[in-house]
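Tip: read the tokens left to right.
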């Protein structure tokens, strides 16, 4: 994955999520004013870090440009192993982002590689932010629908 990512996005570095990464993402909530996206994640990353560390089938990924965190995601494999879920996604609120609009495509590509590695045949983006649905559709995800009867999700085509 690293070599393909570097060919397509040479300024991106892919890592896991550490506690310090989660705390850094949480600090985005304090950034305000011109040059920052107003909307933020409704969750806190640090408690999610603690929770996801106990999940052996987790999918985690952070994207960096130099020393700047540009985006991250936590996800997991379904119980039967057929689906990869991206449960939490956030990109830096800094505008312009150091990686432009490449953050989500990189995260989606990472989920696709993970699905291939574990033999999953579906990739889902769960609880998409309503303002980003058209963007996700343009990135190859289908219209929102119920996922396992409980949550709203968008399946990758």
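Filled-in amino acids:
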């Amino acid at each position: 994955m690293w070599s393909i990512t570097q060919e397509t996005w040479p300024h991106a570095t892919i890592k896991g999520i550490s506690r310090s990464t989660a705390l850094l993402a949480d600090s985005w909530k304090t950034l305000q004013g011109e040059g920052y996206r107003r909307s933020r994640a409704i969750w806190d990353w640090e408690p999610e870090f603690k929770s996801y560390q106990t999940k052996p089938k987790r999918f985690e990924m952070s994207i960096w440009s130099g020393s700047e965190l540009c985006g991250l995601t936590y996800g997991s494999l379904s119980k039967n192993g057929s689906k990869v879920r991206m449960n939490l996604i956030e990109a830096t609120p800094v505008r312009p982002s150091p990686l432009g609009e490449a953050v989500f495509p990189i995260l989606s590509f990472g989920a696709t590689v993970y699905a291939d590695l574990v033999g999953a045949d579906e990739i889902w983006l769960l609880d998409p932010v309503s303002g980003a649905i058209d963007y996700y559709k343009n990135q190859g995800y289908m219209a929102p629908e119920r996922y396992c009867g409980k949550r709203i999700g968008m399946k990758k085509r």
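The beta strands are 13-15, 58-65, 68-77, 83-91, 122-126, 145-147, 151-155. The first helix runs from residue 2 to 8.
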